[in-house]
UniProtKB/TrEMBL annotation:
PROSITE patterns: G_DYNAMIN_2. GO terms for biological process: endocytosis; intracellular distribution of mitochondria; mitochondrial fission; peroxisome fission. It comes from Cercospora berteroae. This is Dynamin-type G domain-containing protein. PANTHER family: DYNAMIN, DYNAMIN RELATED PROTEIN 1, ISOFORM A. SUPFAM superfamilies: P-loop containing nucleoside triphosphate hydrolases. Keywords: GTP-binding, Nucleotide-binding. It comes from the Eukaryota. GO terms for cellular component: membrane; microtubule; mitochondrion.
Length: 390
C-alpha cells in the first residue's frame, strides 16, 4: 500500500478521461472477481448497525439509502458510481465462488425492472427476497448485489457496502446471525487489496467499537484503513476535543487518516442531496460547532469523495502489474481446460457425431484389450502412470 500512503494533500483529486477509463476497465473485471478469485482493489464500507454507514453511502452517491434496523441488508452491495450526462440505474447479482449450476440459474433470474434512481430501495427489497430463496429468510448471503448508478452528480467511484455488524440478539436475530455478520466482514477485510472504511459515530467510544478491532486484526499495520466519524453534532461539549484529536490522527494513527461527516437531521427525507451538502458545509464552517478548526481535507463529503477516488486510483495503479500476470495465468489455465474438452458441439448433429466418435473409440479400446495388442495411446499412458489413467 505504499502508493496510498500519502493521500492527505490539500488538493482535490480530479480524474482525467484516461483515468476514468482505467478505473472502468477494472470495474468490468469486478463481476468476475468473486468466481475467479481475482484480488482487485476495493473500498469496503464497514460499521455496526446504526453507525451512520447508510448516511455515508447516501452522502457519497446522492441516492437515498433505506435506514433503520428493519431494513438491514443480509448481503454485500457493490455500488458502482459513474459520472454521465443522463441518469441510469441497473442491477445484477454476482455469484460467490463455488456456486452450483442450479443456484447460478436462480441468481440469473434476478432482473429488476428499474429506470430511475428513486427505484433504489425497491432493488434492495427485490434482491433480499431473491437471495432468501437460496440462503433462507434472515440469513446472510455470500453472493453480492451489484448496482450501477450513472448521473451528472455522480463521482467515478466504486464502493462495497457490507452488512452491518449485529451487536446483540433481538427478536428475529439469533446468535448465529451475530457471528455470521462478523465472519462476512472479516473475510472482506482480510483480502489484501481491500481498503477498509471503518465507520463510527462520534458519540461512541473508540476503544469499544468492534469494527476497529476487526480492522486491526485484518490490517495490523493500519496501512489500508480509513476511519470515518459520523454524527459529530450529537456529542457532548466535553468530548469534542477528544474527537477532534481522533480526526487529527493523534489518538489512533492510520496511514490513510480520518474523516468526519455530518448526518442528515430530522425531516431529512424532505431535503435534496444538495441541501444536505450545504447544511453539512455550514455546520463545519460555524465556529460554534467546534469543528471549524479541522482542515477541509478531513471533513465533509466533497473532500471525502476526492480522497476515496485518490486512494482507489493509486491502489489500482499499484496493483496492475501483478493483476495482469494473474489474469494471464488464469486465462492460460482456462484455455487448457477448454482444449481438454475438445471442439464445441453446438447443435444436435455435432453432439450426436461426438457421441458416435466416443463410442467408436471405446469399441476400439475394448477390442484391443481383449486381443492384448494395446496399440492405442490410452494403454501406453496407463502403463506409464502406473494404472492411474482410468
Amino acid at each position: 500500500m505504499s502508493a496510498t500512503a500519502n493521500i492527505d494533500s490539500g488538493l482535490p483529486f480530479h480524474a482525467s478521461a484516461e483515468q476514468n477509463e482505467f478505473m472502468s476497465a477494472i470495474d468490468r473485471l469486478r463481476p468476475l472477481s468473486m468466481q475467479h478469485e481475482l484480488d482487485l482493489p476495493q473500498l469496503i464500507v464497514c460499521g455496526k448497525q446504526s453507525s451512520g454507514k447508510s448516511s455515508v453511502l447516501e452522502a457519497i452517491s446522492h441516492v437515498p439509502f433505506p435506514t433503520g434496523r428493519e431494513t438491514t441488508t443480509r448481503f454485500a452491495t457493490e455500488l458502482v458510481l459513474r459520472n454521465a450526462s443522463c441518469e441510469s440505474i441497473s442491477a445484477s447479482i454476482i455469484p460467490a465462488a463455488g456456486t452450483s449450476i442450479a443456484d447460478l440459474e436462480t441468481l440469473r433470474e434476478f432482473d429488476p425492472h428499474v429506470q430511475r434512481l428513486s427505484d433504489f430501495s425497491r432493488i434492495l427489497e427485490e434482491a433480499s427476497e431473491h437471495l432468501e430463496k437460496l440462503a433462507g429468510s434472515g440469513r446472510l448471503s455470500s453472493h453480492r448485489l451489484r448496482i450501477e448508478l450513472s448521473g451528472p452528480q455522480q463521482p467515478h467511484l466504486t464502493l462495497i457496502d457490507m452488512p452491518g455488524l449485529i451487536a446483540n440478539a433481538t427478536p428475529g436475530i439469533e446468535h448465529f446471525d451475530i457471528q455470521a455478520s462478523r465472519k462476512v466482514m472479516n473475510e472482506y477485510m482480510r483480502q489484501p487489496k481491500s481498503i477498509i472504511l471503518a465507520v463510527m459515530p462520534a458519540s461512541e467510544d473508540l476503544n469499544d467499537h468492534e469494527v476497529f478491532q476487526l480492522a486491526a486484526d485484518a490490517d495490523p499495520d493500519r496501512v489500508r484503513t480509513l476511519g470515518i466519524l459520523t454524527k459529530p453534532d450529537r456529542i457532548e461539549d466535553e468530548n469534542l476535543a477528544l474527537r477532534i484529536r481522533i480526526i487529527q490522527n493523534e489518538t489512533l494513527p492510520l496511514t490513510l487518516g480520518w474523516h468526519v461527516l455530518r448526518n442528515l437531521g430530522p425531516g431529512a427525507e424532505r431535503r435534496s442531496a444538495d441541501d444536505r451538502d450545504h447544511e453539512e458545509a455550514a455546520f463545519f464552517a460555524d465556529p460554534r460547532s467546534g469543528w471549524s478548526t479541522v482542515p477541509l481535507t478531513k471533513k465533509g463529503v466533497a473532500t471525502l469523495r476526492a480522497r476515496l477516488r485518490n486512494i482507489l486510483f493509486r491502489s489500482i495503479v499499484e496493483t496492475v502489474p501483478t493483476l495482469a500476470r494473474e489474469i494471464e495465468l488464469k486465462t492460460q489455465d482456462l484455455e487448457q481446460h477448454l482444449a481438454m474438452l475438445g471442439p464445441s458441439r453446438i447443435d444436435r448433429n455435432e453432439q450426436l457425431t461426438s457421441l458416435d466418435n466416443i463410442a467408436r473409440e471405446m469399441s476400439t479400446l475394448i477390442d484391443q484389450a481383449c486381443k492384448g495388442t494395446y496399440d492405442e495411446q490410452f494403454f501406453t499412458s496407463a502403463l506409464t502412470n502406473g494404472g492411474n489413467n482410468a
